[in-house]
Task: structure prediction
Amino acid sequence: MRPSVRDIYRETCYVYATRAEEIARKEGHKRLARLASNENPFPLSTNARAEAVRALDEVHRYPPEYHTRLTELLVEKFSWNPVVVGNGMDGIIETVIRTLIEPGDKVVISEPTFSFYRVAAAAQGGDVISVRREKDFSVDVPEFIHSCRQAKLAFLCTPNNPTGNLTSREDVKKILDSTDSLLFLDNAYIEFADTDYCDLMKEYDHLVIGRTMSKVYSMAGMRLGYAFVPTWLEPCYHRASTPFAVNRVTAAAAVGALTDLDHVRRIREHAIRWRARFKDEVKFRTFPSQANFILIDTAPHKGNAMMEQLARKGVLVRSCDSFPGLGDHYIRVNIGEDWENELFLQEINAV
Result:
């Protein structure tokens, strides 16, 4: 008898931003403004590329169990030990869930937010509790705290994807002070913000801070996430990890990227300058962002319709109708190269 597929994988999955590109290609566009996936439009830094090329000489061997050179650099840079690494932020999220969650354990998520938390938690058998954000997309702190009291793990994204807003340090501390649930603070876009949370690791032993090399470090295609974890979690995390999850080339590129401060500064300044222009010049309602993207309310147009219309002009944006709790009249647009941003402004204001 053929084995049956789990119900969760018959319908539920992460939604990729691929439809816009398919539409644009059918329209004959060769050069596309890629503003749909929150990517960094600029290539690897010189240091990162040089380290990656050197690492190619050893790719016939399995990578080490622990990427000591990389983790030591992260510890030195951020003044927290232990640090763990994974195959992108997604790999960190999956491993933390796998380490903690058994079927029926409750997992709290503040939505709308990054949809992979829900997918990964449900795949492990977790019972997902959704806490709806306020109308301005801020976290409903009292309700979040109340839900966490019933849960083993909670996810909070700040700056939040897809809304771009930041949760204050004060609110994060309120949550940590009021619950024993492990709080996973997703800081994928923190380099574009004016707040940091790293020092909170010294105060709380039920906090994980996840970060990524995909955004400001131009490494989205190389898949490297890292996280600051409490000491008690580190050995368990490693036991739950997929073997050889991070390859040699990626780890070496990350070492080079972390030493190239000028690259990070340029990318950050570029994103901050353009998100201000988007906010000022887009004729539809935009929302405050501390990430490398902005959220736009396209009403009276549906988000899918706006995505399709822009794709026909060669501009790829993300419709947000797949984000639970957000609604069907939003798009998310990341900061691209100058020409991409100018084309986007031209086309969305022509709608």
Q: What stands out?
A: The mean pLDDT is 95. Residues 46-258 form a domain with the Aspartate Aminotransferase; domain 2 fold (CATH 3.40.640.10). The chain has 13 helices and 13 strands.
